[in-house]
Amino acid sequence: MDLGGTLYALRTQRGLSQRELARRCGVANGTISLIESNAINPSVGLLRQIVNALPMNLSEFFAFEHIEERKLFYRAEELREIGGKGISYRQIGTNLNGRALQILNEVYEPRTDTGKAMLHHTGEEGGIIISGEIEVTVADQRTILGAGDAYYFDSNLPHRFRNIGKEPCHIVSAATPPTF
């Protein structure tokens, strides 16, 4: 079960922001974001708290079937936040099951990065820097890219992104297959 996707679907169906749901159940905003992105699994007690704030019970939550239509167009508020810790990843579409491509609107706050450990996964990824600067490391190559610059590489190669600037860095990226 995609617990995060189910929570996202139920929350947005009820017109609640992450902040409002967090307030209703007495947790930090980031907790809701992390659960929706499947970065953490809540305890049964925390899940019960969140589900009660929707309001519904656990059996209704687990019985919920969200069938996402294959939308063609998305408004800004419909992009799903799947990031955290100073990096925003706003994904087009809420459920990428059966999809070959993931498209993200990324924002790296100053002095943030994807972590000391290099990332690597099956597929390819590419992006274009809209504003700001980002240091991109792929295998043993490193460069700083600015507005209008782009990258495209085999994601099996170890890679890392780091905003070394004083301004947020905005990137529009795509990965195949979806990585989140």
UniProtKB/TrEMBL annotation:
PROSITE patterns: HTH_CROC1
One Gene Ontology molecular-function label: DNA-binding transcription factor activity
Superkingdom of this protein's organism: Bacteria
Domain (HTH cro/C1-type) ranges: 7-61
Keywords: DNA-binding
PANTHER family in alphabetical order: HTH-TYPE TRANSCRIPTIONAL REGULATOR, HTH-TYPE TRANSCRIPTIONAL REGULATOR PUUR
Identification of the protein by name: Aldehyde dehydrogenase
